[in-house]
Write a structure and sequence with these properties.
Elements lengths: L1 H23 L6 E6 L3 H10 L8 E6 L9 H8 L3 E4 L4 E2 L4 E4 L5 E5 L2 E5 L10 H13 L3 E5 L8 H9 L3 E5 L8 H8 L5 E3 L4 H10 L11 H18 L8 H15 L4 H10 L1 H12 L9 H18 L5 E6 L6 H17 L6 E8 L2 H9 L1 E3 L8 H7 E3 L3 E4 L1 H4 L2 E5 L11 E6 L8 H14 E9 L12 E5 L4 E4 L19 H9 L7 H13 L3 E4 L5 E5 L17 H4 L5 H11 L6 E10 L2 E11 L10 E8 L6 H5 L8 H93 L3 E5 L5 E4 L30 H11 L3 E6 L5 E10 L5 E10 L1 H19 L6
Parallel strand pairs: 1-2, 1-8, 2-5, 3-5, 8-9, 9-10, 11-12, 11-17, 12-16, 17-18
Antiparallel strand pairs: 4-7, 6-7, 13-15, 14-15, 18-20, 19-20, 21-22, 21-25, 23-24, 24-25, 26-27, 26-30, 28-29, 29-30
């Protein structure tokens, strides 16, 4: 009892806190978008049962509903809350302390605080109504937008909460362990953008607590304590991650820090500094929060259309045949923007019907290494269908079980790399540069520096594309506008003085150090190795140790006759340094040596030297031991004074003396024949195997592709149908419970009247009865459905069957007073059973006990008779 009272007091306190918070809400109230799918009805009921009706917030519920099903969600939720629950209608204004439910077969957005309904254009199995609404909510309410993801299958909602976080909104998710279906909650949590994870019943109090205790950091320049704390946080981040945020806008930094303080319920920034020092993992989370890695395919579609239809075609027509178009996508996050450009380039090439061979190379960079890893995979959730048209999906993506993979023709155009735009050298000689929605988070000085950096990176006339809220006002001499509205600019053709640019220092290692680290082979100089090296240099043939890629690790003896430095950048690869006559032979021989640990021999190879020639025998062998040298390859060169001929060659000398020229040609001819024969044999075997394998794979691939497409379509439709059926099933279950309750009420009502009642169908089979009837007719539950005439009755009423049939025929009730075997009297009334729609579905027979009335009537008659005998009765 005490525990129950405490729980009530706790609940009262929670509601009181919520009411207090509601009073403090400003006119710019929060709108909460709640996404739920399969199993979401129970979670929604739990949520609304635990939130006060005067929280000052408005709630919009988005579900996956069957298009042809009339939903009962407003009625169900109305039982769980005192707030008014309304099914949304077009252009309906959202007001606080109301709940709005999406209607079936509609897509819903919000604009200027009003709900906008439209007919869905997506395929039934591919609708993402939660993502769509949460995106529009974030754009409309910005920091006053709140997204909640409850039970459901799939990943609907993930893209929506990303936009909410970008706008500094709040995201809450039901704990997957408490959800009936954990697909949607789990997918939302995997984004790393969730503020609160809790059971549905606890989310209201956690949300109110978060909003009520939001710490507000003063950005006043005079507040030295906050400035000092912010500087400490920047230093901690730089020490931990290596990235400097000192030139980011202070308002942005403060907002993101406030968000993390909210999560941990820390009210002072000085306390948060201490928390960061004690919890290094929080630095990683704050770093991710500051990066704001929100992106999607074809963001700002008008800009991409302009790029495809005008900018790229004009540029492509000016480029020469064989040109490589260089593009840099900065702050690429998980790669959607880079892949979008590659797709638009392919479309522009196809639309312009280019006959020139122009290729594309995209450099996509970001400071977030985890994001780059995801971008390299090129695998995206099915949510991308809200941004990518079905035509592009079919052409540039491959459908997997629950994801889409970017096609290889697009993937090979993009090179991803981690890169800090602020401190690392830029890419140069670019034709196009995309830097969208990153400059807005930086101070003006850093913006100016980066714009100058982009000027340096681009070729004259190159294109720069910025985000919708960014500009080049301070650098108008460097760039001229192509489309001010879409933020597309062209680099100045004439050179402009941009001042000194303080690129960061680069650190280089010597090749020998790099080789030591890559191979683990360390050369230590002592007396033993000195003597051994002297002996090797004087008395052994020249040799080279290489790794499996052909990079030279160690050299003994004089190898200048066989190797020479390649022109251009220094390159210690044997394939680049081999002199004329060695390159082709070494390539084949080294390949053969990699197949086994047996030595491979090359005889009488003519090598071109400086102004002359040299014959050499070469031995090539892969090393097996020791372990640290395994898979390295040793190449030994042995000079030959004059080439040796085989017996068959010598027999040809009968006609005369063989000249040195003939000898060389014969040796070369023999070697070529041997190589050609072995190559032909290997090629024929490979061709036969490949042909057979290719035919099998092609046939299998076609079958699998066809099956996969069918299964994917079926799975999507089945998943959608399953979600809709889950919702309908739960609504029907609630209705069944209501009927059961009504049935119990009716049964108790009938039994409380103590009137024996019997319900018969049109065939006079028993449908229902009250407990009192068992005193007249011997009935049990198992008798329901049996004909009434089969039962034993105490009632002296042999005409009852005929009377029942007559009532069914005439629909006129019949009433009689009848006696039982034990002298009890009952008033029997037989009436038609009418349904609500006035159909006759049987009979209702009531038995009212009138034994007392009959007894009194008999006594009265006897008293009258006695009085009449004594002449005392006066009628």
């Amino acid at each position: 009892m005490k525990k129950s009272r405490k729980q009530k007091e706790s609940k009262k306190g929670t509601i009181s806190d919520q009411a207090e918070f509601a009073k403090s809400q400003s006119k710019s109230f929060c709108i909460v978008g709640i996404g739920a799918s399969a199993g979401g009805v129970e979670a929604l009921e739990e949520f609304f049962k635990n939130i006060t009706p005067d929280s000052g917030m408005a709630f919009v519920v988005i579900q996956h509903l069957a298009p042809d099903h009339k939903g009962m969600m407003p009625e169900i939720l109305q039982r769980a809350t005192q707030m008014k629950v309304i099914q949304a209608s077009d252009n309906l204004e959202v007001v606080p302390d109301h709940v709005y439910v999406i209607p079936p077969n509609k897509s819903m957005d919000i604009s200027n605080g009003c709900l906008q309904l439209s007919a869905p254009v997506e395929h039934k199995g591919l609708r993402l109504p939660i993502d769509r609404f949460l995106r529009s909510l974030a754009l409309d309410k910005e920091e006053n937008s709140i997204g909640i993801i409850l039970s459901g299958m799939g990943s609907d909602g993930c893209e929506g909460i990303k936009v909410i976080k970008e706008k500094n909104g709040i995201v809450l998710v039901q704990d997957p362990q408490s959800a009936k279906f954990d697909g949607m909650p789990g997918s939302a949590i995997s984004t790393g953008l969730v503020d609160i994870i809790a059971p549905a019943s606890e989310l209201p109090s956690r949300l109110i607590g978060l909003l009520k205790k939001i710490p507000v950091i003063s950005m006043d320049d005079q507040n030295e304590e906050n400035k000092s704390s912010l500087q400490k946080i920047i230093i901690l981040l730089q020490t931990h991650t290596g990235h400097d945020f000192s030139s980011y806008k202070k308002a942005t930094l403060y907002r993101r820090i406030e968000r993390r303080m909210n999560v941990h319920q820390i009210l002072k920034i000085t306390d948060y500094v201490s928390y960061l020092q004690e919890n290094p993992k929080e630095l990683d989370i704050l770093f991710k929060e500051l990066l704001i890695g929100v992106t999607n395919f074809f963001r700002d579609p008008v800009m991409w259309d302009k790029l495809r239809d005008e900018i790229l075609p004009d540029l492509l027509h000016t480029l020469p045949d064989g040109y490589i178009l260089r593009v840099w996508v900065t702050a690429c996050s998980t790669g959607e923007e880079a892949y979008s450009f590659a797709i638009v380039f392919k479309e522009a090439m196809s639309k312009a019907r280019m006959t020139k061979n122009i290729s594309l190379q995209i450099f996509a960079t970001d400071v977030d290494e985890d994001a780059i890893i995801e971008a390299r995979k090129g695998v995206f959730r099915t949510n991308i269908i809200s941004d990518v048209s079905p035509g592009r999906i079919n052409q540039f993506f491959t459908k997997n079980e629950s994801t889409y993979s970017i096609s290889s023709s697009i993937r090979e155009l993009v090179v991803f790399a981690t890169h800090d735009l602020i401190k690392e050298p830029p890419f140069t000689k670019l034709d196009i540069l995309l830097c969208r929605n990153i400059l807005i988070y930086m101070e003006s000085d850093l913006q100016k520096k980066l714009i100058s950096l982009f000027y340096y990176s681009l070729k004259a006339g190159g294109i720069m594309i910025l985000g919708g809220s960014e500009s080049v006002q301070q650098n108008e001499k460097l760039f001229s506008p192509v489309d001010n509205k879409l933020k597309i600019f062209k680099r100045s053709v004439s050179p402009v003085e941009v001042g000194k640019m303080d690129f960061p220092s680069s650190y280089f290692r010597t090749d020998s150090i790099a080789r030591e680290e890559s191979t683990g082979v360390k050369v230590s100089m002592n007396i033993q190795t000195f003597v051994e090296q002297q002996v090797l240099h004087r008395f052994s043939p020249a040799s080279i140790l290489i790794n499996k890629d052909g990079d030279i690790l160690y050299i003994t003896g004089r190898t200048g006759k066989y190797l020479e430095p390649a022109t251009g950048k220094a390159n210690l690869n044997i394939y680049a340094m081999a002199r004329e006559g060695l390159r082709h032979e070494l390539l084949i021989a080294i390949g053969n040596a990699k197949k086994s640990y047996e030595p491979v021999y090359l005889r009488n190879i003519k090598v071109g030297t400086n102004g002359g020639k040299q014959y050499v025998n070469i031995t090539i062998q892969s090393t097996e031991k020791p372990e640290e040298f395994k898979d390295t390859i040793l190449i030994v060169f042995t000079d030959v004074d004059s080439p040796e001929l085989t017996g068959s060659n010598k027999s040809k000398s009968g006609k005369g003396k063989i000249t040195s020229y003939d000898r060389e040609r014969e040796i070369e001819y023999q070697r070529c024949l041997q190589e050609l024969q072995s190559t032909r044999e290997a090629m024929q075997a490979s061709q036969e195997e490949l042909k057979s394998t290719n035919e099998e794979l092609q046939s299998t691939n076609e079958e699998l592709q066809s099956t996969n497409e069918e299964l994917t379509t079926s799975k999507e439709e089945m998943q959608s149908l399953n979600e809709e059926l889950q919702t309908v099933n739960l609504e029907l279950q609630i209705k069944v419970n209501d009927f059961m309750q009504s049935n119990s009420d009716m049964k108790n009502l009938l039994n409380s009247t103590e009137i024996a009642t019997l319900f018969l169908d049109r065939e006079l089979n028993i449908r229902r009865y009250t407990d009192s009837i068992t005193k007249i007719i011997k009935l049990r539950l198992s008798d329901i459905g049996r004909p009434f005439t089969d039962l034993v009755s105490d009632l002296l009423y042999p005409e009852m069957v005929n009377d029942a049939k007559e009532v069914l025929r005439s629909l006129i009730f019949k009433e009689s007073d009848l006696q039982t075997n034990d002298k009890r009297w009952y008033k029997v009334r037989i009436m038609p059973y009418r349904t609500l729609d006035e159909r006759i579905e049987g009979l209702v027979v009531t038995f009212i006990d009138i034994t007392l009335a009959k007894t009194l009537e008999a006594d009265l008659k006897e008293s009258i008779r006695i009085l009449q005998e004594h002449n005392l009765y006066r009628p």
